[in-house]
Amino acid sequence: MLLSILFFVLSIVPSVLIFIWLRNRQKDHILYRKKCTYSFVSGLISVLPIILLSAILYILIRVLNAVLLKDINVLVYQAIYKFIVLAFAEEITKFFAFRFVLKRNPYAYSWADIVAFMVIIGTGFGLIEDIPYAIGASPIIMLVRGFTMGHVGYGFIMGWFYGKRLHTGKKRYGAIAILLPWLIHGLYDFSLTPELLEVNDNLAIIGVSLALLDIVLPILMIRFFIRAKKQERYTLPLSTFEQAQHKEPTL
Fold first, then answer.
1. pTM
2. What one-character-per-residue DSSP string does 27-84 give?
């Protein structure tokens, strides 16, 4: 029991460190730090509406299956379940939590700020999600889940593209901010379906590849914040950056 608790604590260390690191990006910016804390709490409690939405979607799919899709293939049903009931419910709920955080006591956000808030929301949600999976799990599984931080990576994608949407004013980036994390998340969940592996054992490469992606994305996120310090388009408030782009050069 004590060993399991120890490994669970070790498994959440990477996520906690990411939160602390992002929150301390701007130590003198009180509003930013408050937003980071609020984002983390929003990620923690977003599991509640996700449970409700998932339950509603599950019931709708079951009804649809009973009424219209009586002979639906099991694999097709699993695809619908993984992509809609699980991945869609989680990503859309986190997105609305993200939008709510941005609108609550708003200030002049930079592109990097926006990415940080969404990553932190993903971090908070991932920590809560890991708790039920840790019950009865082996220490190795706990550590694997702790270091393959899917929700951190999906949060990075969502925050980056939403920041680009605000930076460029092009709505298509807002759509990508939702669709891309959803598709990756759904494909990862679906790749773990036993029925899929029964079709061909080689399809396991999909799950392995996406698990590696869950490791690579947080690394890219860290690289982004390190390099963003030297790039004004990421650090200046979005409105200020646009003004700077059109400012007359001085002699």
1. 0.87
2. TT-HHHHHHHHHHHHHHHHTHHHHHHHHHHHHHHHHHHHHHT-TT--HHHHHHHIIII
